[in-house]
Amino acid sequence: MARIELRNLSIRFGAFKAVDDVNLSIGDGEFVVYLGPSGCGKTTTLRAIAGLVDATSGDILFDGRRVNELRPSERNIAMVFQFVSLYPHLTIAENIVFPLRARGVARAEIARKLDWVTGVFRLGDELRRYPGALPPGARQKVALARAVIRDPAVLLLDEPLSAIDEQFREEMRWELGHLQRELGVTTIYVTHDQREAMSLADRIVLMNHSKIVQVAEPDRIFFEPASVFAGQFIGSPSMNLVDLVPVAGGLRLGDSTVVLGAAELPSGIAGHGRPVRLGVRPRDLRLVDGEGHALAVDDTFAVGRERFFTFRIGEAILQGTDHRRAGGGEGRVRFVPEGLMFFDAESGLRIAGGGRPA
Ligand SMILES: Nc1ncnc2c1ncn2[C@@H]1O[C@H](COP(=O)(O)OP(=O)(O)OP(=O)(O)O)[C@@H](O)[C@H]1O
User: Fold this and answer.
1) Dihedral angle of Cα 232, 233, 235, 239, to the nearest 10 degrees
2) Domain spanning 4-226 has what CATH number?
3) Domain limits, CATH 3.40.50.300, in the chain
């Protein structure tokens, strides 16, 4: 296990900065998930921690010791990628113990370690089989077992579940989280799948355009996104966004007739003096039978037991949840005050609202 620190880490490929002045401390045994859109620099950061890419500037420290100059094999890390390569002519057991054999570890010790890892990963039946006989998800589990059998200080995982089909992925995700906690190994996991990040991470490191834009526990990043980007990247269905226009009595939603008044607005927001955007998740935008704003509903639809509705403001289509009694009448739209987030329209930063529900 190890603490990891990135200090002013930048990585350039020619003129392009793939990682731009990143600072981060990862605790011993922590499970950190790097999340962000394609090309934002997640994999490059991971590869730099592994020693597969050189830092252009800045430091990478393991337990306070600078490792920039160490080769991958000297860093005591293990890495698992999206596509695993197991040796097809070796059994699962032989594949798993391969790193120990390569290091000349004694037979008794290898047997002990294999026993341990087999128990942790519940691999008993598979051990004598060959990789070709296992489904991709099980092969990935074998790759993980092979990665942890030599007690790495750091486990680096780059989209390890993305090549596995949906159903097995859920199961593997659960299992991976469980295993990581049992092993207590410091883990950095790269994904662009927010659901994976939300369910696995102790903390999420959200990246965009080569920079870290927020580091927080999954719950916090959901309820207190630092910016429009964070608010929209996390949560499904995604957060609605609409520009607010100052009018007498409050803030109007775009060019609609809906005006949010004092009861719905945090104090001071109406007098912000700069353009403000409202962010509201569908769960906090409700079509109800009781009190609310009169709005022309565009469409209603159901996804399983949940019912949704949409309405338009200018070009934008907003989505909310339908809380009317089944077969309900016209309905009114309620904005749940605790769920409203306000962003500076120019900087994109959250200036008010949000927060974990009590
Ligand atoms: N060896 C390289 N040479 C030149 N450019 C590179 C190299 N490696 C990565 N890049 C570029 O750096 C940027 C960041 O890539 P990176 O793989 O870190 O992104 P990512 O966030 O992991 O996205 P993805 O999920 O698509 O892998 C990309 O624009 C990529 O094309």
Assistant:
1) 10
2) 3.40.50.300
3) 4-226
